[in-house]
Amino acid sequence: MEEFVMEEAALSSAPGEAEHPSLALANSAVALPGGHTADLLGTPAQAERWLARRDLAPDGAGLAEVCATQLRALREQVRSLLASRVAGQPALPAAVTAVNDAMTRVPTASLLLWDEKTGPYRATPHPTTAIVEHALAVIAADAADLLTSPDAARLTACASPPCNRFLLKHGRRQWCSTRCGDRARAARAYARRTTTE
After folding, report:
1. Nearest-angstrom CA–CA distance, 130 and 113
2. Are 53 and 20 in contact (CB under 8 A)?
3. Residue 7 burial (CB < 10 Å; 0-12/13-18/19+)?
4. Alpha-carbon dihedral of residues 98, 8, 66, 109, nearest 10 degrees?
5. CA distance linking residue 36 with residue 67, whole number of Å
6. What is the pLDDT of residue 174?
7. Element counts in the chain: helices (H) and strands (E)
8. Cα 140 versus chain centre, distance
9. d(CA 120, CA 122)
10. Spatial distance between the Cα atoms of 23 and 194, rounded to a whole number of angstroms
11. Consecutive 10-residue averages of pLDDT for the chain (197 residues)
């Protein structure tokens, strides 16, 4: 399978991605026609842009390859959990463990801190070295929320092969994008024409 780089702006968001960063993460590796794939986290720079667009990392954070690898690893676990939910199958224990580990690796609650001059205040510790761990925790918590919320009943896989993206259904829509919907309708029309000839 040939790999190539595609900018995120070229792909429209699937329904639900704006509300759920875990859904956006799962959809950051896209299967395209012709055996191509687009990996929006393929390089540290791409991973950094992806995180920055979702306010999960500052611009210019300088992510290393190990950070992008951690993000891609969580993506595979989240994809596994979403696929299990859509198929109505039990989740792989390793995927559940990975999400739980990411959620608990860094504090997500605002802690009580004390400044000598201004007094007490609350803030979430977010040192530069923990940018990715913080982003992973936020995404993992969102995955847990998505899978246990009423939105989970609307979770589905795009119905236009070879697309591998997930979406939250609205009405009868079965596709993650207009591109996939057009491709599915064209395939159906072609199938009807060839069976009547």
Report:
1. 18
2. no
3. exposed
4. -50
5. 24
6. 84
7. 6, 7
8. 10
9. 7
10. 37
11. 45 90 96 88 96 92 92 97 96 96 79 88 68 92 96 92 91 82 72 71
The token pair at 33 is 């026609």
Torsions phi, psi for 42 (to 5 deg): -65, -30
Tokens of 155: 């979770």
21 close to 56: Cβ distance less than 8 angstroms: yes
Which amino acid does the sequence have at 195? T
Alpha-carbon gap, residue 7 to 181, rounded angstroms: 21
Nearest CA among 177, 193, 192 for reference residue 27: 177
Alpha-carbon span 89 to 52, nearest angstrom: 34
pTM tops 0.90? no
- Strands of 3-4's sheet in order across: 3-4, 36-39, 29-32
The two tokens of residue 156 are 């589905």
Residue type, 119: G
Please give the pLDDT value at position 111. 78
